Amino acid sequence: MKFAVLDFETTGTQSVGEIIQVGLAIIEEDRSISRVYGSYVKPGGPIPAFITGLTGITDRDVENAPELEEMMMELVPMLDDVVLVGHNVAFDFHFLQNALDRCGYLPFQGRILDTIDFLRISYPSLTSYQLGAVTAQFGLKHERPHQADSDALATALVFLRCLEELEDLPLLTMQRIADLFSSEDSDLGWYFDGLLQERERQTFQPEDGMNHFRQLALRVSDWAELEPPRADSPLNPLEDETFESFLENVKMRLQTILPGYESREAQDLMFGEVHRSFAEEKHLLIEAGTGTGKSLGYLLPAIYHSVRNREKVMVSTHTINLQDQLRERDLPLLTEAVPFPFKAAIFKGRGHYLCLRKFEQRINQNLAGPREDALIAAQMLVWLTRTETGDDEELNLGGRGGDFWETVASDTDSCQGRSCPFFRKCYYHRAKHEAGNADVVVTNHSKLFADVKAGHQLLPSYEHLVIDEAHHLEDVAGKHLGMHMKHFTLAHTLLRLYKDSRNGQLPALRQTLQSAGSEQASEWTAAIDSIYPDLLTVKENWDQLSERLFALMPSQSDASASEAGQLVLRLQPGRRPKGWEELVTLADAFHLALGEAVRKGDRMITEMREQEGQSSADNLVTDVGGLFKDLAAIREQVRFFMALDDEKTVYWLEASGQYRAKSLQMYAVPVDVSGQLKELFFDKKKAIVLTSATLTVDKSFQYMIDNLGLGAAAEQDRLLTAQLPSPFRYREQALLVIPRDFPSVKGSVGDAAFVEKLVQSLSEAAAATGGRMLVLFTSYRMLRQVYEPLRDALAASDIAVLGQGIEGGSRTKLIRRFQENARTVLLGTSSFWEGVDIPGEALTCLAIVRLPFQPPNHPLVEAKSELLQAQKKNPFMKLSVPQAVIRFKQGFGRLVRTNRDKGIVIVYDTRVIESYYGKYFLYSLPGPKMEHMTTRQMVPRIEEWLQEGGGS
């Protein structure tokens, strides 16, 4: 089989673009690359500036290039009898067919393969399938990205890598993959069929360390065989050792593992404070800024305490990202540095783990769904030969992946427990078993609250807890102790039960029963038939209710909606909107119909479970039962929301103007969670350590103490606090400038004069810092106002502008593009204020357009303000300012990430120097050099400061 790997650079999209460069790499049957052909092509008009920016190809390059016809005379003979390969091949194939047609050749009739499909299947865990990112990950040379010959060669090398990878797969996995594609008439199916035939002829098959179980090749072994740490030694390794000597020992070992490791004052203080909190059984609030090394700061005392006292320590992070970072970076390091074996387990919410039983059922059902589903299933088959955790964060599933994952994820209601054939291989039970064995368990805030709500059935019991990123605790508590439901939650569950007479779990169960043919089975098929109309009624009622609720929304999103087009409406128990009674009637009808369906479903499932010997239907019975349980829970939530009768709860609706009723979300959140946090955690646990880079406002912890319910602990002398010194030399590393004559702005939209001034100042500052600038907005509308004029203003300086929500692509993708291209300005709103890590020179300048006050009319902010007013407190000083200061500190923390970073912060909001509360913002920062000046003096000062002290 001979392959031709094709790549075109073009002046635009499929419908209007012209070819300006071609690259072709030929792979011979022995897998050698025999030639790489490249040529410019002369287009009919000038090359757009953004294409030149992307590819580096200018009008001068193509001035004397061959015309399309000449180039095709060279290209066409090379395409004889080859399999055509491309990275995102549909794009190149479209241009090829057009060119063949224009130049009078017959269309290409051969087979076509896409390297993206091959990458997804061979490397299901790669974080990006973009060519540049893949070649970097594989360590392949790719000298001129976005130049056709270089791209074609890089694609050919990547394709060969994928083929090698596929050859190492167990034969069983190969057979299952070929089987997935056999039903469709595709070139990918044809290729895998050929590959399988070749493999089956080989006498030697690679199987290293695989467990074959029920037609799946798995890397994972039985979890029952996992021993607890130190199982073979009855002695406690820390019996007679003090914390200080343990610490010295670990530090010495760290210096040999990490040559650059040095003791940091702030980290040493943290070791001591966390240890003291555990030893004295007191809670601790500890603010540890960037660069402290706070993960090690709490992990080492946690390991010491848990091993020495044989007591589990729980660590909770806000994001799954941080959990994964601990697993991949900090814990492996400590495994080497701690002089005895210990076990730290990562334990996530159940939906993050694959259920092998559901996956088996899904791929045995012959995937009659979209081609995408077969691709995802193939990715997962390969992943099973590599994963020991079954954790979805290891997978890059792409577009429809989320929907597919939902159908195969582990969940409580459909779990068969010990009677499941996969029980001993089960990833969730493995994680649970490991957490039971571990000294330290790392979980996340969501799971922490889910455990509390489930009566502590989910996590192993613990008395000592570390809460990282603790400034999020109040928010997460509100969401979990209240309710949050989307229109789609119900619609999706209904669809999974019954889409139409052929699709869904109920029709599948009905089919299985029909083939059983017993009298009992026909009673049950009749029962299923009687549930269908109920489900249709429920769906109609739900759509109607959603439409009517959406109709209550304010017509155009209020200017302060921070994200694109989100509409928000608060519903108050005392002041129900006009016509609410009709909605309640509609909700009652929904409630009745859903109750009826759930009752019939539950009764049928119970009967089936009592009847032994229903083996072929067992799996389906479990899953259908699980979906009815979900429906029952949803029914209760909607009932709770529509009752609107709890004065201590804030009720509101959110939706997007674009997707209307389909995007409806219901929220009901307690106004004040401090009482519940006190009761559930601070009164019950021996010691809780709360840490984050931002816990103080104007050097005081009072705001956090009040809001998290720590007041009583403070009065009883059960609360320690510590604010750690910064490891950075902020006066030398960061300059904060405030243009004191800058115009101010009311609301979240700037007037024309403000926008013009802002664009002018940003473009001058960006030119001075060579791009490498992050601009933080508090409103999405203002970001949009600035985006185009700023892009046009910077085009001449060859600096690109990326706008969140404008370019499309996730936050991670935008940050990656920002890091890869030095001359770039990135505009972001709320989600960019924190959790974004851009160390080094990629970020030199941070511009804060407005102080990050939350919109005062957001339902939750409004309700909290009312509560404070009732207590005769000033909501602005007690709530708005502290929240904004914490967010402001988070934003500032993006700038200096290592002790070599040097950067500038521009604060365009003159309230920081003019208002009585401005000082709280400036005094809360970790001591940068602060200067204010006129807008005109700003750029010269920035240039001067960057040149001082060898700044980059």
TrEMBL record:
InterPro entries, A to Z: ATP-dep_Helicase_C, DinG, DinG/Rad3-like, Helic_SF1/SF2_ATP-bd_DinG/Rad3, Helicase_ATP-bd, Helicase_C-like, P-loop_NTPase, Ribonucl_H
Pfam families recorded: Helicase_C_2, RNase_T
Domain Helicase C-terminal: from-to ranges: 757-950
Helicase ATP-binding domain boundaries: 253-516
EC number, as in UniProt: 3.1.-.-
Enzyme class: hydrolase
Keywords: ATP-binding, Exonuclease, Helicase, Hydrolase, Nuclease, Nucleotide-binding
Chain sites annotated for binding ATP: A288, G289, T290, G291, T292, G293, K294, S295
Motif (DEAH box): 468-471
GO biological process entries: nucleobase-containing compound metabolic process
GO molecular function: 3'-5' exonuclease activity; ATP binding; DNA helicase activity; hydrolase activity, acting on acid anhydrides, in phosphorus-containing anhydrides; nucleic acid binding
Superkingdom of the source species: Bacteria
Residues annotated as signal peptide: none
Function: 3'-5' exonuclease.
Family: Belongs to the helicase family. DinG subfamily. Type 2 sub-subfamily.
HAMAP family in the cross-refs: DinG_exonucl
Name of this chain's protein: 3'-5' exonuclease DinG
Native organism taxonomy: Bacteria, Bacillati, Bacillota, Bacilli, Bacillales
